[in-house]
Amino acid sequence: MHRYRTHTCGALRDSDIGKDVRLSGWCHRIRDHGGLLFIDLRDHYGLSQVVADPDSPAFKVAETLRSEWVVRIDGKVRRRPDGTENADLPTGQVEIYIKEIEVLGPAGDLPMPVAGDQEYPEETRLKYRFLDLRREKLHRNIMTRGAVIDSIRSRMKQQGFFEFQTPILTASSPEGARDYLVPSRIHPGKFYALPQAPQQFKQLLMVSGFDRYFQIAPCFRDEDARADRSPGEFYQLDLEMSFVTQQDVFDAVEPVMRGVFEEFANGKAVTQKFPMIPYAEAMKKYGTDKPDLRNPIEMQNVSEAFRGSGFKIFAGMLASDPKNEVWAIPAPKGGNRAFCDRMNAWAQHEGQPGLGYIFWREGEENGAGPLAKNIGPERTKQIAEQLGLGVGDAVFFIAGKPQQFVKFAGPARTKVGEELGLIAKDRFDFCWIVDFPMFEWNEEDKKIDFSHNPFSMPNMDIDEFLKLDPASDQDKLIAIKAIQYDIVCNGTELSSGAIRNHRPDVMKKAFAIAGYPEEVLEQKFGGMLRALSLGAPPHGGIAPGIDRIVMLLCGEENLREVVLFPMNQRAEDLLMGAPSEVTPKQLRELHIRLNLPDK
After folding, report:
1. Which of 467-471, 554-558, 567-571 has the lowest mean pLDDT?
2. Alpha helices, DSSP H, located in 367-491
3. Which residues contact 114 (CB under 8 A, 6 or more apart)?
4. Phi, psi values for residue 499, rounded to 5°
5. Cβ-count burial of 55 within 10 angstroms (0-12 exposed, 13-18 middle, 19+ buried)?
6. d(CA 46, CA 33)
């Protein structure tokens, strides 16, 4: 017989009744039923109920066992007595009568129990992460993560992508988030950086003639934590393709995303053909460039209904500045004063003066509320017809410059959808956000800046782009769209991508438009420019976040629930004690002297 087990704790079935078996695992729950001891023995694979009574030679040892002790038990499999079966457990038809117990690993007092799914403080969960990971839900999430990555790898390889590993120690990046720096011992005063992403390397792979690259890539960024991004490090499905258009990238990525989500969605519907939504349209309809399409609410511009109206606040704003607009957030089935007042109070809590509203109810088909009375029944009807609203519905209004109020409009739309139960919870809705502006006007510095990714190709004729004059063609420049795209699912941005700027002359022109002299470009990106100048294919890619994909599939709202050993919100590893102080000898070897801030 094997030293520790003949079966795992999830393996025994009716067919094993009568067998002598050996199991090893953790004491999950211990129940004393008047001298009859029941122990749920747990391992990675499941639970088995083991039983000892006073006639068992192992009874005295069984009485000493406590939660999370690791034990080996020998016993005979028998059928559970009638009425005690557990249909929710694969092993629920049988139990093991214990003949012998060996304690393999006793456990002290637990800082948190493993059985159950209670919530515990983050500090406790992260300091004792090994206990946290024994809990059923988190353990299952981590196994799902591994299965998702296996599925992604398989699907990428089926599409002709080849997996490469790019360097972890590299040069510091002058753009993007803050780098994690690694001092060099043999090059005093110089530093490596951990890669924020394999961006330059994957582009260099395309320049090197490798046609389809992918990698489950670790990325390191020294930035503040968020619910949808772990501090310190995260993983992404990094991919790049040569000789491709934007549509080619979409055609490669959609089957992978769709297939993985269908495989792990537990019956939830998944978008079959991802719609393409221009950035400007997304901002106007949803107030965000990562819209949750499960929410059916679409905002509309209703400025004309208020222009010259009796509602002087909105009418005055529209008359004073042509850039001002009034947007409407429809609220189907929200047509009662209590809900409208609740939304108004929420807006004030968010730092806004409030939310103007109109609602329709029986007997007040022309609209109710102060705003309706100010603008009159004709304009109220105009709004209702434009938005397709009627009795039982409501609408909320936001006014001003859209680029300023849009950060509130998006969350307000989401809040209305949540409060009214309009957001479908039984599906994964994907979309592509496309046509991002390449440049924008910086009002503070009175100059043109890059709007998003500076290394994307402009979506226009190259020769026409090279002829543009920053001094005289400002309107044309602001109107240029870049070949950039985001993939969004249920309001979560999974990734940004682009068709890369593979021509040095176009790159130099783009940076010159944004006010960067050529010598700055050479200094910061000289290696990439050299590579592009020696025969670079058109190429593009994207990098969906693994952590976010798994978070969505597991139905979690925080990445901590799908990451093995996450840091806390202050980028501290409470389990391993990182970051930590190092010895004076280590600092001397690295030629580093500390200059700590005053406490």
Report:
1. 467-471
2. 370-387, 402-419, 462-467, 474-479
3. 26, 28, 67, 68, 131, 134, 135
4. -85, 125
5. exposed
6. 23
Give the three-state DSSP class for 180. Answer: strand
Tokens coding 587: 């600092």
- 121 HSE (CA, 13 A, CB side): 5
- Side chain identity, residue 190: K
Q: Which of 414, 411, 365 is nearest to 385 (CA)?
A: 365
pLDDT of res. 175: 62
Q: Alpha-carbon distance 487 to 431, whole Å? A: 6
pLDDT band at 174 (very low <50, low <70, confident <90, very high): low
Q: Please enumerate in sequence order all residues whose Cβ is within 8 A of that of 352, keeping only pairs 6 or more positions apart, or say none.
A: 408
pLDDT digits (tens, 9 = 90+) for 193-207: 999 999 999 999 999
Structure tokens at 326: 């009034």
The residue type found at 419 is E
Omega before 579 within 30 of 0, i.e. cis: yes
Q: What's the CA gap between 18 and 15, in Å, rounded?
A: 9
CA 145 – CA 516 distance, rounded (Å): 42
Rounded Cα–Cα distance for residues 326 and 580 (Å)? 53
What does the pLDDT read at residue 214? 98
| Strand 232-242 to 180-183 pairing | unpaired
510 within 8 A of 460, measured Cβ to Cβ: no
Distance CA 438, CA 514 (A): 10
Of the candidates 128, 133, 117, 129, the residue with the CA atom closest to the CA atom of residue 26: 133
Cα–Cα dist 332/335, whole Å: 7
Rg (the chain; Cα; Å)? 31
Q: What is the pLDDT of residues 210-262, one digit of tens each?
A: 999 999 999 999 987 766 677 889 999 999 999 999 999 999 999 999 999 99
DSSP 7: S
pLDDT digits (tens, 9 = 90+) for 30-87: 999 888 999 999 999 999 999 999 999 999 999 999 999 999 999 999 999 999 999 9
Q: Give the up-direction half-sphere exposure of residue 120: CA atoms within 13 A in the CB hemisphere.
A: 19
Alpha helices per DSSP H over 350-400: 370-387
What is d(CA 338, CA 496) in angstroms, rounded to the nearest whole number? 41
CA distance 546 to 568: 19
Q: Which helix (H) or strand (E) holds 234?
A: strand 232-242
483-531: pLDDT as tens digits: 999 999 999 999 999 999 999 999 999 999 988 888 888 888 888 899 9
Residue type, 414: T
